[in-house]
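Deliverable D5.2: sample structural annotation.
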Amino acid sequence: MIQIKSFFSKLFTSNKQGEKLITIAIYILLAFGCLFISSASINSASTIETTLKNIIKQVLILAASIVLFNLASNYFDIKKCKRIILGIMIVEAMLLVTAFIYCKITGSINGNYSWFTINLGFFEFGLQPSEFAKGVIILAIACLFCDRKFKNEKSFKIVFWTFAFFFLFFVLTIVVLQRDTGSGLILFIIGCSLILFLDNRRFKPLQIFLIVCALLALAAFFCCLLSEQAREILAKISTTFAARFSAVTNPDYAKDETREIFYSLLGISRGELFGVGIGNSVQKFGYLVSSDADYIFAVIIEEIGIFGILMVFVPYIALISLLLFYSQKMTNETDKIILIGTVIYLSVHFLLNIGGVSGLLPLTGVPLLLISRGGSACFGIMVMLGICQNRIANYFLEKKKKSGFIG
């Protein structure tokens, strides 16, 4: 009876030994996001019934996300994770393929083949396995390449090529089959970036190669951004990518490819310093199709101006800074990689979303984590943040043991 009571209490409270400021920052972002998802979803097509339905649905998603965060922070076991990580990767690979087959049968969602639709009667939820792949890759790198038993050459080769196969499978499945370039790009950035942080001499040639490739990719990015000729070459490969680069330098409401960027910038400029008031956004009325998802930041600035920027940036910066701070404190490489991977996960989503809606970067269609509408993205990042809290709590526990406070 006591164990059952303890279990249910931990569903609603995070690990008490973790960093409380991280939990506070997360809850601020979730609450703020819930408020503006509700505001952004009210448009000309809304009724009292659909508005109430959207609000209840988002509250349920937040409640489930918080439960996942608390479970991860209280019950995650790194030793068990190391034993089953290959199984987790296989399950994730199966989910990615199954989502593609499901969408092929039922039809794509927003042009993507990456969703399951779960109908619960009054509510319909969409699950996107590609959002979970990001956390799986972080855990895979942390569990496989930081473990001592994989340090010898024979074991390393087996593990490395197994991981490489799954990693490329994830990326190619998401980008090519599921047509979700944003998720594929983020997954690729997370995987390649984490390899640079690994302390293993066998990775040195690969690390040098990845640094050279990153510099070349950065040079190509700026060429496409600044050169019309480079965009013409890119258009021969993909007209969509070329149009997204053109949208940065010349957003035009007359073109389908750049129209939403134009209205996003119009909404941001309309908000001026203090905004037009919560609920008074004009751009959400059909101008921005994903006003409560990809473009929620534009709606926030339009409605509350500089206060919206602060309410997003301050908790985000605090959250990322705290995770970075504790990643440097970790003496265990596995824990360090988990925290750094989560920082990259959060940061890349943040930069791509904010940069996209503000016209500073080509749009990739990725959500603003913890704020945008979307259950899968919220579930994925909340589990990883819960695991980070678990490892921080473990760090404090080990510190107390070394200090002699715990026998």
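Annotation notes: Residues 150 and 156 are 5 Å apart (CA to CA). The chain has a mean pLDDT of 84.
The annotation will be released with the project's public dataset once the embargo ends.
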